[in-house]
Specification:
The protein is built from six helices and 16 strands. The protein is α/β, with parallel strands linked by helices and 265 residues long. The chain has a seven-stranded antiparallel sheet. The chain has a seven-stranded mixed sheet with strand order 11-10-9-8-12-13-16, sandwiched between helices. A two-stranded antiparallel ribbon has the order 14-15. It is globular, with a radius of gyration of 18 Å. 43% of the residues are buried. The mean pLDDT is 92.
Length: 265
């Protein structure tokens, strides 16, 4: 993590894109230029004087030339519900970029990226980066319903093909959890004599725990994004502790990206 930037931003759009899912686009050129795949930003939400703490958000996408940053967020409480009412032109403030990002090993040629729910957002820039590097990229997306697979078209555009999808209710792709698609992808690659060199997963904790186990069994190096509630976001308050084999670590500055086998599940 380099020097932190504290920058004023302007809301360019704030749209409902799925069930309890909103896409916020802000003009925030300095932070947008600094963000690397897997890092996050800390947002001071305007109009919340009674809630002083900033909110941590993963960055879905940036456009450095335009100076913009996209954040996909899910309405889960007072703060995010308040955010849905932020109109175009609203001034807000961000600190970024924060934390360790994804780290694809040098020499890797074949990668498997797995996202559950809004976990699709922190993996999108990594997908772009891997495709630009000419790597063989497989993406698995899981969500509760077809309507919640809001980033599927964006992934398809970057990949040049449909990502492998699963929905809990069977309304799109494989019916059930996306872990079966992960198992298939790992088995297919091994059978072809071209195993994956790297796996990244972001989503609900149970999903990441299962996929971490699948990667370990397949002998594939894996990283996970351990998103936590955060107060300070800069490593001072110790409010976002992750239990690892090397002791307690802070999700905000030691993560949010961790070696999957170092996390105590």
């Amino acid at each position: 993590m380099g020097k932190l930037i504290n920058e004023k931003a302007t809301v360019l759009s704030n749209e409902n894109v799925g069930p309890r899912l909103w896409l916020l686009t802000v003009r925030c050129p300095q932070v947008a230029a600094a963000v690397r795949p897997g890092q996050f930003v800390h947002m001071l939400v305007p109009g919340m004087a009674d809630h002083m703490l900033r909110r941590p958000f993963s960055v879905y996408r940036t456009d450095v030339a335009a100076g913009t940053m996209d954040i996909l967020y899910q309405v889960v409480g007072y703060g995010t519900d308040h955010m849905t009412a932020l109109p175009v032109g609203t001034e807000c403030e961000f600190i970024g970029s924060i934390g360790r990002g994804w780290e694809v090993p040098e020499g890797a040629r074949k990668v498997l990226l797995v996202a559950g729910g809004v976990g699709a957002a922190p993996l999108f820039m990594l997908t772009q980066q891997c495709v630009e590097r000419g790597l063989d990229v497989t993406v698995v997306l899981g969500a509760q319903t077809k309507d919640a697979l809001v980033l599927r078209p964006a992934y398809a555009e970057v990949l040049g093909e449909e990502p492998r999808c699963a929905t809990d209710d069977g309304t799109y792709g494989r019916a059930g959890f996306c872990t079966s698609l992960v198992e298939e992808a790992l088995a297919e690659a091994a059978a072809a004599g071209e195993p994956y060199d790297y796996l990244a997963v972001c989503g609900p904790l149970p999903l990441m725990r299962i996929v971490a186990g699948q990667a370990k069994e397949a002998g594939v190096f894996a990283q996970v994004s351990m998103e936590k509630r955060m107060a300070c976001g800069i490593g001072a308050c110790l409010g976002c502790i992750v239990d690892t084999v090397d002791g307690n670590r802070r999700a905000c500055v030691d993560g949010p990206i961790f070696d999957a086998q170092e996390v105590v599940w």
